[in-house]
Design a protein that fits this description.
single chain, 206 residues, mainly alpha, YcfC-like, 10 helices, globular, cytoplasm, HflD-like_sf, cell membrane, HflD
């Protein structure tokens, strides 16, 4: 994979988390494989490649790629507005998190505990999702900037769905961090749109 493709895998995962959060907010439903892919990405500490973070391939990131493509193409009829808004917010929150070494330390030790829960219950168990959602609440939710998720109140008010959405936002911020560590930058989304789109078209064709 080229450096740009590696960046796009991570950025596609930010958008994937946003798409899934939006889906839960609107329909209360999301596939277990997609949820597992994003939750699993929180627990990979020393990946050999970027794809290793997401289970070794990018099959569960395809919806994220599509949402990213629609944002870069700037086609009003195809644009997924809420996922775009959530994605940009996650990228912004990651920048704030980066300045908080105390919070990063808390997250590291809490993720170690969550890893033990995963070994006991399995990756997409309610207890694991609740723990990830709780970690988001205790850390990212304390920032002044908040992500307001819009959807159907019938689904948003269910505690299990609220925990899933928070867990996904946490995973999205983890992917935003990876994107930046791989050299990704917000300016690329403005000034390198053509290059990014060309690479994304190739990646989604394969």
């Amino acid at each position: 994979m080229t450096p740009m493709q590696e960046q796009l895998v991570a950025l596609g995962a930010v958008f994937e988390a946003a798409v899934l959060a939006d889906k839960i907010a609107r329909t209360g439903q999301v596939s277990e494989a997609s949820m597992g892919c994003m939750l699993g990405s929180l627990l990979v500490r020393d990946p050999q490649t970027t794809l290793d973070v997401y289970g070794g391939d990018d099959l569960n990131l395809r919806d994220g790629y599509r949402a990213l493509i629609s944002s870069l193409e700037r086609n009003p009829s195809a644009l997924q507005r809420e996922p775009l808004r959530y994605s940009l917010a996650m990228i912004g929150l990651e920048r704030q998190l980066d300045k908080r070494s105390d919070m990063l330390q808390i997250m590291g030790s809490r993720l170690d505990q969550i890893q033990q829960q995963v070994e006991h219950f399995g990756l997409v168990h309610d207890n694991v999702i609740a723990a990830c959602g709780g970690l988001y609440q205790d850390t990212i939710s304390t920032f002044r900037q908040r992500i307001q998720v819009h959807g159907d109140m019938r689904f948003l008010q269910q505690p299990n769905n609220a925990a899933k959405i928070r867990a996904l936002l946490l995973a999205g911020i983890r992917s935003a961090r990876l994107w930046r560590q791989l050299g990704g930058h917000r300016w690329q989304l403005v000034f390198s749109r053509g290059k990014l789109l060309k690479a994304l078209y190739d990646m989604t064709r394969n």
